[in-house]
Specification:
Elements lengths: L1 E2 L6 E3 H8 L3 H9 L6 E2 L5 E4 H11 L5 H4 L2 E2 L3 E8 L3 H14 L4 E5 L2 H11 L1 E7 L7 H10 L7 E6 L4 H9 L4 E4 L4 H20 L1
Parallel strand pairs: 6-7, 6-8, 8-9, 9-10
Antiparallel strand pairs: 1-5, 2-4, 3-4
């Protein structure tokens, strides 16, 4: 993640509290309990860097306030595709199939929500195939976080699920997914959908 700023933005505990919509003591407790990194001024006051505040918000799943979004850009890797599915066989099948048809792309795999979050934060893949039925994770909320958090860029998200019903489809599309597939997957249609997104991206860059 890169930040287009020549100066480091620093916040007091009170400013953090106001940005997050909590009382001052709550932000101080975050710092004292080690949840939010901070340093102390010679006068004994806590100070928090923008980078540490953003990391805290992302890890906690807290929406980044509009005041902090300005100047934040994600170096999205449009040459990478990520597959998130706890079923290792399906994960490997999708990855192998797409690798064969898109040999010039880099691939990342994640088998749970925690691993997925770490890779997305570090690698910023441009295309994500997300199983919304991950154990212990609200797949709809995860999709919304990926699509709405500016630190993740604006990746294309293809949601997949073993539940085939219109309500599930409408809900995940409402959360920001760009496409929806039910299992068993139509691999050729999945491949074509990824290629369509690639073509759309290339067209945008040409204009």
């Amino acid at each position: 993640m890169s930040r287009k700023s020549d100066s480091v933005r620093i916040f007091s505990a009170l400013e953090v509290a106001k940005l997050c919509g909590v009382v001052n003591q709550t932000s101080i407790n975050w710092i004292r309990n080690g949840y939010l990194r901070a340093f102390t001024t010679p006068g004994g006051q806590y100070r928090v860097s923008l980078e540490d505040l953003l990391e805290f918000l992302q890890n906690r799943g807290i929406k980044i306030p509009a005041e902090l979004q300005q100047g934040i850009t994600s170096e999205t890797d449009w040459q990478s595709i990520m597959v998130i599915d706890d079923d290792s066989e399906i994960n490997k099948l999708i990855t192998r199939f797409l690798k064969k048809n898109l040999p010039n792309y880099n691939f990342f795999q994640a088998f749970d929500g925690f691993e997925a979050g770490a890779i997305i934060t570090d690698k910023h893949p441009g295309f994500i195939i997300l199983d919304i039925d991950l154990p212990g994770v609200d797949g709809h909320k995860l999709c919304n976080t990926i699509k709405s958090n500016p630190a993740f860029g604006k990746p294309f998200v293809i949601a997949i699920t073993g539940m085939e019903d219109n309500d599930t489809q409408q809900r995940i599309l409402h959360e920001g997914a760009d496409a929806f597939f039910s299992k068993p997957l139509d691999m050729d249609r999945l491949k074509d959908t990824v290629k369509d997104f690639i073509a759309k991206l290339e067209a945008e860059y040409e204009h």
